[in-house]
Amino acid sequence: MTVPVPIRPGEFESWLTLLQDIPDDRFELVFKTVEDQLARNHELLMVREETRRREAAAQLAAEAARRSDRLLLLGLVAGLVIVLGMTAASIVVGLQGHVWLAATLSGPSVIALASLFVLRKSVRAPRSSALPIEAAANAPTA
What does the alpha-carbon distance between residue 140 and residue 142 come to, in Å, rounded to a whole number? Predict the structure, then answer.
């Protein structure tokens, strides 16, 4: 297979002027050659376009990965700051004699906030099926 050469500006017009000088018996051969060259040029343009699209997609994926890593690191830092702050606050409040408030600050709220920032999802207790009144209302009748 020959390497396709792109058509430069004005080249098509020069081919048209050359076609006027070609004898009729060779016209089909020249026309077929020009048609093949145009097909190769089109194929080259499509390959270049596909390569450009792939490179752009790879660049977007790399940028998205960088942003995701940055967001994860920011969540880790925010979680650490919140946990350290709430732990320090619970120690200070506990030393002042407010034991229940200190337990609240250092208990489940620290775990919930840390998991919210670090894991990017909230930890929820499993939900029961339905309230007894709703269950009785939705029960099938025999």
Answer: 6
- Which tokens sit at 85? 């702050």
Q: How far apart are CA 82 and CA 109, in angstroms?
A: 10
Which structure tokens are listed for 72? 């994860």
Q: What angle do CA 137, 139, 142 make, to 5 degrees?
A: 125
Apex 66 CA angle, 48 and 75, nearest 5: 160
- Return d(Cα 112, Cα 125) in angstroms, integer: 11
- 């919140």: which residue's tokens? 82
Q: Which residues contact 80 (CB under 8 A, 6 or more apart)?
A: none
Helices 99-106, 108-118: axis angle to 10 degrees equals: 20
pLDDT digits (tens, 9 = 90+) for 9-44: 667 677 677 777 777 777 788 778 878 888 888 899
- Tell me the pLDDT of the chain averaged across its residues: 80
Whole-model pTM: value is 0.50
Nearest to 90 by CA among 77, 104, 78: 104
Q: Retrieve residue 127's tokens.
A: 């939900």
